[in-house]
Amino acid sequence: MIPFFSVVVTVYNKSDFIENTVNSILNQSFENFEVIVINDGSTDNSAEIIKTFKDQRLKLITTKNQGASKSRNLGIKQAKCNYIALLDGDDIWDLNYLDYMFRAINTYPNQKIFTASVSQKYEERIIPLKYNINQNGLFGIHNYFEASKAHSIITSSSVVFHKSILEKTGLFDPSIVSGQDTDMWIRFGLFNEVVFINKVLATYNYNPKSLSNTTFKLKAKPKFDKYFEEERKDPLLKAHLDRNRYAMAILSKIVNDSESFNYYTSHISTENLGKKQRFLLKGPRWLLRFLLKLKSYNKKKLYYPES
Is 304 domain-assigned? Predict the structure, then answer.
């Protein structure tokens, strides 16, 4: 019998986390799934830890290091099921995660993308993300761009999608080294609404060694130049892209990359930014670095380098 979900896990040097990640999958209350773990050329003992699990639902594929996009794409291509659930190799699911996803799919059988609220873990502190969604019930349908003003309602550890959407969106873009998931969710949002489960069902483990927290070269980041035509027709998409461009412009200023700063700011409509954002965009580099230092002292996630 074909399982209902294909769970795709990508792993690169996650030996400190991968055991808990796999346990959070195999111990799900909903049991009808397969697990495809792509070991992306890990140089630690991640693969050895995964091999200790003796569960027929789990399949391990080891490749040379090729990056998150190619690893996820390989896992998706290997999937037997129509519904794909992604999970990063250092994050964990609530033990009822797939059960809630199954219930959401049965409630909204014509929808293609399903996601849930996420918490972030910093050492021993766990902080639920705050979203700008106005939703009283457990399930709700939202425009991705409108619902992601505070935080993206889709993450690479809290999304289930019907693989038929890939006919329009395509797979993850291997040319983007860091931020390829941001690019993918934009394409998801262009063609689909999103069913949001108003319950914390996944936990993002802040790992200062992860690629998104250590890659500060602007050439490795999304340029958002694929969407010039679409954003002229869709103000919600335009505002979403401008918020992401703002983040890249701030990073550009911090790392003293004036060429990238000029590129990103040239495509921002400042009416899509708040007063504080407009101030910081014009502010001195030393102020941004000082604010990041304060954030690091509070042990909050840093999206840009400290030094």
Answer: no
